[in-house]
Amino acid sequence: MSTQHDTPRRLRLGMVGGGQGSVYRRVHRIAARLDDHFELVAGAFASDPDRSRAAAAELHVAADRAYPDYQTMAEAERKRSDGIDVVAIVTPNHVHFDVARTFLEAGFHVICDKPMTITLDEAQTLAELVERTGLFFGLTHNYSGYSLVRQAREMIANGELGELRVVQVEYPQDWLSTRLERAG
């Protein structure tokens, strides 16, 4: 997977997850476009096929590349001459391992939202698969795409803040304050 600025075309990006109602849908699409190297062309955007198709339409993804599930997507994209170059996994955490394994086994590079997996055994399995296939596996820490984080990084690199001894960051998300044990 090339990341050079002289890439002759944008990398064809597929996305698993990130459908309608997804909190991170917009963030990951914006992060993928920051350097203008990616174009979203395919996806299994939701576990429900109708919602996946609706999300694809909203995102201007061709109907024949709006997949009902990630397994179908991996198989179909592998057979296309213009198949995806890389898949971004932006699903709920417990799904990351199965999706990543499926796409790595199908021969695709993977960009996975944190956390990589739920268990150490799953992480080791993916690491062995990446080693065996030689494919790229990137683990995103998507807040690095936020403008204030980018500005802070630049200020640190330029020495504008002096020697840093402690960094404390908070990112409150009120929508996460619902007590799930009461919500069912």
Quick summary:
This protein is an alpha/beta fold and 184 residues long. The protein has helices at 25-33, 49-58, 70-79, 96-105, 120-133, 147-157, 180-183, and strands at 11-17, 38-44, 86-90, 109-113, 137-140. GO terms for molecular function: nucleotide binding.
Report on this model:
This protein is α/β, with parallel strands linked by helices. It folds into two domains: 11-145, Rossmann fold (3-Layer(aba) Sandwich); 147-183, no CATH class. Helix content is 37%, strand content 15%. The protein has helices at residues 25-33, 49-58, 70-79, 96-105, 120-133, 147-157, 180-183, and strands at 11-17, 38-44, 86-90, 109-113, 137-140. Helix 1 (25-33) links the parallel strand 1 and strand 2. Helix 4 packs parallel to helix 5. The chain is globular and about 55 Å long. This is Gfo/Idh/MocA-like oxidoreductase N-terminal domain-containing protein. InterPro entries: Gfo/Idh/MocA-like_OxRdtase_N, Gfo/Idh/MocA_oxidoreduct, NAD(P)-bd_dom_sf. Residues 12-138 form the Gfo/Idh/MocA-like oxidoreductase N-terminal domain. One of its GO terms (molecular function) is nucleotide binding.
| Count of distinct structural domains | 2
Radius of gyration: 18 Å
**What is the CATH homologous superfamily assignment of the largest domain?**
NAD(P)-binding Rossmann-like Domain
Strand portion, in percent? 15-25%
* CATH C-level label of the largest domain: Alpha Beta
Structural class: alpha/beta
Question: For the report, how would you describe the main beta sheet?
Answer: 5 strands, parallel
The end-to-end span amounts to: 43 Å
Mean pLDDT: 88
Major sheet: order of its strands? 2-1-3-4-5
What level of helicity do the residues show?
25-40%
Summed up, the helix count is 7
Look up the CATH topology of the largest domain.
Rossmann fold
Helix/strand order, N-terminal first: EHEHHEHEHEHH
Secondary-structure arrangement, i.e. CATH architecture of the largest domain: 3-Layer(aba) Sandwich
Number of beta strands: 5
Indicate the low-confidence ranges by residue numbers.
none
Question: Quick one: overall form?
Answer: globular
Pfam families: GFO_IDH_MocA
Organism: Vreelandella sulfidaeris
GO molecular function, one term: nucleotide binding
Protein name: Gfo/Idh/MocA-like oxidoreductase N-terminal domain-containing protein
